[in-house]
Amino acid sequence: MRKTLGVRTKDGITFAFYLFPITWNCEKYMKQQFDCVQGLLSFVTPLLTGLAFATSPTLAATLASSEAQVNIDNFSHNPLAIEVLTKTKTEAIASSGQVDVTADADANFIVDPFPPLTRADNTSVSQAHGAGSSYFGFAQSIAGLIGYNFLVQGGQAFSFDFNTFLGLETSLDRAPGESSTAFGEISLLLYDSTDENNWQLLDFFGLAGSLTTLGDNDFLNLEHTPNITLTKNQLSTDFEGTKEFAEASIKASYSRNFDTLTYLTLIEAKLNRVTVQTPESSNLVGLFVFGLLCIGHRLKKQHEG
Ligand SMILES: [Ca+2]
């Protein structure tokens, strides 16, 4: 069963998590876009390469990194079922230069007969590095886990502890036009799943950050409901210049009392996404469109002829 999950901050930024349906749809859309561009690129790459060297003799280098980690332990109860998921995607196009992209994701949920020993952890890392005068790089990683139906009796408290880390970094050495972006989000949501057809969101924790170099759309936001108590809360940012970073390290504990028998489902998920690109990378697409128009015009002429 896929659930549509959503968290909205007080600033109006929706940062999580239509993860399951939306991410899949986004990837399908992006794959179509990239397949189209890559197919066309193979046709006109010699022309593009010549253009890139002619218009941009200086070399550029960009870096973007987005990393997230979560550990959950000290559960008061065990789930009846678990699920873990990971997903990665990378795209790299370079007509003049080099671009390296990596995306890694790992997720574990280990249920022990003794509840305090049950634990879960996952990691997601996306990185991109570009050098040259014309390239585009994209990396995205997703890691998530679900604990279904923790059975809590009336009069009991459900509790667990968790640690989260989110680290974003972007840099470039030539401006303007060169671009490096990093986005990351961690969401933790607890549902009352007693009615399996009508889950009720009880509590959530959301941590999200974004960097755009150069650009002003930088933020690092933390939101959570009162049943989550932060025992460590370190957030640091640098949103200036051509090297930016945002980092959050948080320890927290969750506890909530239940008056009646309740099934609880815990979802934790993270998404990390980075891009690096040069100004000329937009020419890759622009020239493409121009080439297609020329080809279309020629075919039309042949057809009319
Ligand atoms: Ca910025």
Number of domains: 1
Helical/strand content category = alpha+beta
* C-alpha termini separation: 57 Å
Main sheet overview: 10 strands, antiparallel
The radius of gyration over CA amounts to 23 Å
The SSE string, one letter per element, is EEHEEEEEEEEEEH
Question: Overall mean pLDDT score?
Answer: 78
As an assembly, this protein is single chain
Mass-distribution shape:
elongated
* Record field, number of beta strands: 12
Q: In a nutshell, what does this entry contain?
A:
The chain is α+β, with helices and mostly antiparallel strands. The chain contains two helices and twelve strands.
Describe the structure.
The chain is α+β, with helices and mostly antiparallel strands and 305 residues long. The chain has one domain (7-304). Helix content is 20%, strand content 57%. The chain has helices at 19-55, 281-304, and strands at 7-8, 14-16, 60-73, 81-110, 119-152, 157-172, 179-192, 200-213, 219-224, 228-238, 243-257, 262-277. Strands 3, 4, 5, 6, 7, 8, 9, 10, 11 and 12 form a 10-stranded antiparallel sheet that branches. Helix 1 (19-55) packs across helix 2. Calcium ion binds next to strand 8.
Topology:
Elements: E1 7-8, E2 14-16, H1 19-55, E3 60-73, E4 81-110, E5 119-152, E6 157-172, E7 179-192, E8 200-213, E9 219-224, E10 228-238, E11 243-257, E12 262-277, H2 281-304
Antiparallel strand pairs: 1-2, 3-5, 3-6, 4-5, 5-12, 6-11, 7-8, 7-12, 8-9, 10-11
Helix pairs in contact: 1-2
Calcium ion (CA) is lined by residues 211-213, 215-216, 218, 239, 244.
